[in-house]
Amino acid sequence: MGANQYREIFRKNNIKTTKQREVVLDILMNATVPLTAEEIYVKQMEGESNISLSTIYRVLDVFVSKCLVQKSNISDNKAVFEVIGMGHKHHLICLICGKIIALDHCPMGEYEKALEEETQFEITSHKLAFFGYCPICKQKNERTPKT
């Protein structure tokens, strides 16, 4: 997406357009997994930007308050951010290293329909995360002697 498309998103969400907001939104729009503010900071430093971490937090707060970005807490109380409306995703989250892997499909479709029929509850969205150990951390843990 280009700067004009981001400006249109900001206009529709009643958000003032700034270069910093465009950079943060661009990083989030191109991410395949939710990102922490620190990861966004590192990614923007790899580019041509030099936005302070505190500014990134302020930008993210604005995006969350305007329902443009969703904030979620994962292991170790780390907050991660992802754009709302980019198609819902489910994730595998490593409890040791914090690695996040996005699932390519939603395993909840049939179950969601059954829940709606059973409860007469209209489900509008859902969120699912699986917690465990990535292959690297699992292998390291298996090599560590148990005490």
Write a short abstract of this structure:
The protein is of the alpha+beta class and 147 residues long. The chain has six helices and five strands; from the N terminus they run ααααββββαβα. Helix 3 crosses helix 4.
Total strands:
5
From the helix content, strand content and strand pairing, which structural class follows? alpha+beta
Terminal Cα span: 53 Å
Q: How do the strands of the widest beta sheet line up side by side?
A: 4-3-5
Number of helices: 6
In CATH's first tier, which class of the largest domain applies? Answer: Mainly Alpha
CATH topology call of the largest domain: Arc Repressor Mutant, subunit A
**Average predicted local confidence, pLDDT:** 85
Oligomer: single chain
Largest sheet: 3 strands, mixed
CATH architecture of the largest domain: Orthogonal Bundle
Q: Structurally, how many domains make up the residues? A: 2
Tags for this entry?
three-stranded mixed β-sheet, Arc Repressor Mutant, subunit A, flat, 14% strand, 6 helices, 44% helix, Dna Ligase, domain 1, single chain, 147 residues, alpha+beta, two-stranded antiparallel sheet
Q: What secondary-structure arrangement, pairings included, does this model have?
A:
Elements: H1 3-12, H2 19-29, H3 37-46, H4 53-65, E1 69-73, E2 79-83, E3 91-94, E4 100-102, H5 109-119, E5 129-132, H6 135-143
Helix pairs in contact: 3-4
What does this structure look like?
With 147 residues, this protein is of the alpha+beta class. It folds into 2 domains: 86 residues, Winged helix-like DNA-binding domain superfamily/Winged helix DNA-binding domain (Arc Repressor Mutant, subunit A, Orthogonal Bundle), CATH 1.10.10.10; 60 residues, Dna Ligase, domain 1 (2-Layer Sandwich). Strands 4-3-5 form a 3-stranded mixed sheet, with no helix packed on it. The protein has a two-stranded antiparallel sheet with strand order 1-2. A hairpin with a 5-residue loop joins strand 1 and strand 2. Helix 3 packs across helix 4. The radius of gyration is 18 Å and the shape is flat. The termini are far apart. The mean pLDDT is 85.
